[in-house]
Write a structure and sequence with these properties.
With about 350 residues, the chain is α+β, with helices and mostly antiparallel strands. The chain is about 30% helix and about 15% strand. The protein has two domains: about 130 residues, Phosphorylase Kinase, domain 1, CATH 3.30.200; about 180 residues, Orthogonal Bundle (Transferase(Phosphotransferase), domain 1). Helix 4 runs antiparallel to helix 6 and helix 6 runs antiparallel to helix 8. The N terminus is likely disordered.
Length: about 350
């Protein structure tokens, strides 16, 4: 399964931008930026292998020529970002990741751009996607599911306290580090919220009813998505699925859940309380917030301080041979490494001058 950089297809309903008028070549801007005591330059990094692809870019493993350390570099083509009307999403991703620090959220180290692409440098999380482990296992046991759900609960609690809604929780966006702990990645749909937002985005199977109905949504959508994720971890498939996105939306709005017999009844109770259509009555989005989720019986016996400090033993430890091992990621065609000439007008370049 490809590392998904976008999950955009069902929602891009606007007409595409006309990028052909008034084009001219420009000198590339300076691509040096500072992180702490280090002045990074694009030239410092040797690209080794593509480890994920999406509609308007790719993620590459790269090696820092100066330190020898490995990183993941997300490379987005500006032409495609504009064409798909993702400028604000990309800017939100950068701004939010600059402001957050959490054990279960990927660490962004540096960003820059040249005359055709945006670059985001991340820690390299070498264990691969939770999606891969789930598909290989078929389904997780209740204790394994609870381990991952607990780490996600703490990450969501932290984000929501920062007034950030994540909006793209799914197994493909959860990476395992070398020790087997989670890192939430891909903040392309994350947004700072003061009240509600109406942007239609996400992955069909994980959309909350209020997103589909365009009622305006808030942080409650992340708790709905957690309910979907727990169900998928324990059943091996999401509760609402179909080949047609619109059929998925109908099933979500109907709210009828089929329960595999093997699902732990206590986990089932938590899922039901997360998949409540009325967001004001949804666990996690009421007065006590995340505490209501943390106090649920499914998490009985969990020491939340131990979870936060990564003292709980992970159920799966990835096989990793070396720091730059890519064996836990799929293989992708490397594509054309030839530098694309800039197709951006001065006005379009200005959109990214702060990047």
């Amino acid at each position: 399964m490809a590392t998904n950089l976008d999950s955009l297809e069902p929602f891009e309903t606007d007409s595409l931008s006309n990028l052909t008028a008034g084009l001219k070549m420009k000198e590339p801007p300076v691509t040096t930026a500072t992180n702490g005591d280090r002045n990074y330059r694009l030239e410092d990094f040797e690209k080794k292998k593509t480890i994920g692809t999406g509609t308007f870019g790719r993620v590459c493993l790269c090696r820092d020529k100066l330190s020898g350390s490995y990183y993941a570099m997300k490379i987005l083509e500006m032409v495609d970002v504009i064409r798909l009307k993702q400028v604000e999403h990309v800017k939100n991703e950068k701004t939010i990741l600059q402001q957050v620090t959490h054990p279960f959220i990927i660490n962004m180290i540096w960003t820059t751009h040249d005359d055709s692409s945006l670059y985001m440098l991340f820690e390299y999380v070498c264990g691969g996607e939770l999606f891969t482990y789930l598909r290989n296992a078929g389904r997780f046991s209740s204790t394994t599911g609870a381990f991952y759900a607990a780490e996600i609960v703490l990450a969501l609690e932290y984000l929501h306290k920062q007034q950030v809604v994540y909006r793209d929780l799914k197994p493909e966006n959860l990476l395992l580090d070398r020790d087997g702990h989670l890192k939430i990645t891909d903040f392309g749909f994350a947004k700072k919220l003061t009240d509600r937002t109406w942007t239609l985005c996400g992955t069909p199977e994980y959309l909350a009813p209020e997103i589909i109905q365009s009622k305006g949504h808030n942080k409650a959508v992340d708790w709905w998505a957690l309910g979907i994720l727990i169900y998928e971890m324990l059943a091996g498939y999401p509760p609402f699925f179909d080949d047609n996105p619109f059929a998925i939306y109908e099933k979500i709005l109907a709210g009828k859940l089929d329960w595999p017999r093997h699902i732990d009844p206590v986990a089932k109770d938590l899922i039901k309380k997360l998949l409540v259509q009325d967001r004001t009555k949804r666990l996690g989005s009421m007065k006590n917030g995340a505490d209501d989720v943390k106090r649920h019986r499914w998490f009985k016996g969990i020491n939340w301080d131990d979870v936060l400090n990564r003292r709980v033993k992970p159920p799966i430890v990835p096989k990793v041979k070396s720091d730059g091992d890519t064996g836990n990621f799929d293989d992708y065609p490397e594509g054309d490494n030839h530098k694309r000439a800039s197709l951006l007008t001065d006005k379009e370049m200005k959109m990214f001058e702060e990047f």
